[in-house]
Amino acid sequence: MSKGYDLFDDVCGFVGKAALYTKHPKGLVDQIMACNSIYKFTFPLRRDNGTYEVIEGFRVQHSHHKSPVKGGIRYSIHVEESEVKGLAALMSYKCALVEVPFGGAKGGVKIDRRRYSVNELERITRRYTAELIKKNFIGPAIDVPAPDYGTGAREMAWIADTYSAFTPESINALGCVTGKPLSQSGIEGRTEATGKGVCLGLREACDRLEDMKKLGLERGLAGKKVIVQGLGNVGFYAAKFLQEEGAIIIGVAEYNGGTYNEEGLDIHALQMHRIENGSLKDFPGAKNIENSISMLEMECDILVPAALENQITEENASRIKAKIIGEAANGPISRAAEKMLVEAGKFIIPDIYLNAGGVTVSYFEWLKNLSRVSFGKIDKRYDMLDNLRIVEAIEKASGVELSDDVKRTIVKGASEEDLVMSGLEDTMVNSYEGLRRTQIDYDVPDMRTAAFVNSLNKIAISYMDLGIFP
Ligand SMILES: NC(=O)c1ccc[n+]([C@@H]2O[C@H](COP(=O)([O-])OP(=O)(O)OC[C@H]3O[C@@H](n4cnc5c(N)ncnc54)[C@H](O)[C@@H]3O)[C@@H](O)[C@H]2O)c1
């Protein structure tokens, strides 16, 4: 992280700017911005070689206006309190924007995961979970983690198993975490959900002829030249789905070097190459790029930062050539850089909208766990009445009403994957519409401010309806 950078401050700055477009009282906006609970702790790890290490962990619950709170767990050496607070805050605004009924949270463990064996990672994950259980910072009705940078389905399975072991009476224990493997009551499509959502969001943006004309671009994703930073879970699936829609992935940047081919890179082959060789270096037919951060500045139509925050800063913003920046990562553009980019006429699709596919499908997984219904059973062998009962069971168990589109898909009879993808598409399309409507209604110049106005309004209503206790 660059010196003086604070993600939480940046997020509050964005919200403060959005609040100027609304009439919410200052006290209410202050309450919405504040982090409600911060848990910072350390615990010991016994390494495989018998030595001991102290591990630092965090869980931040940003907003209790809705329960449970929800947000991923990050394993990274850069984890620090302000980062986790900023990421937790982004979760609150993201959930509100796409109308997923959770408050925002985030967790972090300050480790470089590459330094640890699988056994050590399992001990870290299980102990981290036990620490959260001790302080009531996890549970299906309290706080529901998910994967983020450096974690995936494997870690989520360890968390679910540890939580279940400590709460044998809980019938809903598996709903304590999402992003689990399918064998552990995960849901079809969660792994690729964030990347798929990124692709759907970019498709919505590129389908607006007027917006594309202003940028001097053709309508549609097909033929657009794309550079992706980070070929992890989000970056890989975003690139894969964009490629399937006809976009041309001309460059991919990783922390240890990038690769470039003007004609396009085959994303599957590139990922296989990386798995086999440990880097993107020497991918057949492509050019090695040693300084991968410089790839953000290369000529392209769409830049997709999908690694970490604070990648586009005051220092490099003026050299960004992409016309569209799709924020797949959380917070990749600093506040100072955002101002420069907006002034330069860049079209920025903000993180709290664009990467919301992950939490959307996590919500479906949580509903599935609470209702104890296997969505896989919702197929054409069941009659419509049975499927209607499934809708009722899900709504009763979760206490929330499903959207009409999701209800229709269930009643019609669909596979779990159909259901997830239809709900995800529905969310990304409708949220884009809502976001653009806010931008027009409030006469807001940029999409990020419009996104924060939209979510601020929804959280404010929720707080006002709740009232203040006591
Ligand atoms: N996983 C999710 O469902 C999800 C959901 C919403 C948002 N996000 C956000 O997306 C981003 C990526 O998360 P992820 O889950 O894909 O993580 P990941 O760990 O699966 O992948 C991150 C990738 O970025 C690469 N990377 C790290 N530093 C880099 C650098 N300086 N330059 C280029 N590449 C670099 C890593 O090597 C890795 O391949 C994060 O900001 C995360 O908060 C993730």
Automatic annotation (TrEMBL):
It comes from the Bacteria. NAD(+) binds at residues 194, 233. It comes from Owenweeksia hongkongensis (strain DSM 17368 / CIP 108786 / JCM 12287 / NRRL B-23963 / UST20020801). Gene3D superfamilies: Leucine Dehydrogenase, chain A, domain 1, NAD(P)-binding Rossmann-like Domain. Belongs to the Glu/Leu/Phe/Val dehydrogenases family. Residues 187-467 form the Glutamate/phenylalanine/leucine/valine/L-tryptophan dehydrogenase C-terminal domain. GO terms for molecular function: glutamate dehydrogenase (NAD+) activity; nucleotide binding. The active site is at 106 (proton donor). The record marks 148 as: Important for catalysis. InterPro entries: Aminoacid_DH-like_N_sf (IPR046346), Glu/Leu/Phe/Val/Trp_DH (IPR006095), Glu/Leu/Phe/Val/Trp_DH_C (IPR006096), Glu/Leu/Phe/Val/Trp_DH_dimer (IPR006097), Glu_DH (IPR014362), NAD(P)-bd_dom_sf (IPR036291), NAD_bind_Glu_DH (IPR033922). GO terms for biological process: L-glutamate catabolic process. Substrate binds at residues 70, 94, 362. This is Glutamate dehydrogenase. PANTHER family: GLUTAMATE DEHYDROGENASE, GLUTAMATE DEHYDROGENASE 1, MITOCHONDRIAL. Keywords: NAD, Nucleotide-binding, Oxidoreductase.
